[in-house]
Design brief:
Number of strands: 11
Oligomer: single chain
Order of helices and strands: EEEEEEEEEEE
Largest sheet: 7 strands, mixed
Shape: globular
Radius of gyration: 13 Å
């Protein structure tokens, strides 16, 4: 079993930056893919970014050029660097992981961290 714990959310003004972290524990060596989803009030959860390796990353069109996903395998941690934040980025951000190579990891989930971008 894998446990995921997110941190780094908060309130930021439009144009600002935040860095989310997600630390995996338990059977972390079984993880192949890690990623981030978000869910805004009244909307479906959507995929934001995934990473298999430093050469294999995937981003939603809405965040390309503004968000960067990275991974530290030694620390079993995935990061989401968010720049040029917009009010529409406001959502609960969830970390996800999977034991297979996939652009939509869904096997394990974190509890979520709130990101609020004020205009």
């Amino acid at each position: 079993q894998v446990q995921l714990v997110e941190s780094g959310g908060g309130l930021v003004q439009a144009g600002g930056s935040l860095r989310l972290s997600c630390a995996a524990s338990g059977s972390a060596l079984s993880i192949s893919t890690m990623g981030w989803y978000r869910q805004a009030p009244g909307k479906q959860r959507e995929l934001v970014a995934t990473i298999i390796s430093s050469s294999s990353r995937n981003y939603a069109d809405s965040v390309k050029g503004r968000f960067t996903i990275s991974r530290d395998n030694a620390k079993n941690t995935v990061y989401l660097e968010m720049n040029s934040l917009k009010p529409e980025d406001t959502a609960v951000y969830y970390c996800a992981a999977d034991g297979v190579y996939t652009y939509s990891p869904k096997a394990y989930w974190g509890q979520g961290t709130q990101v609020t971008v004020s205009s």
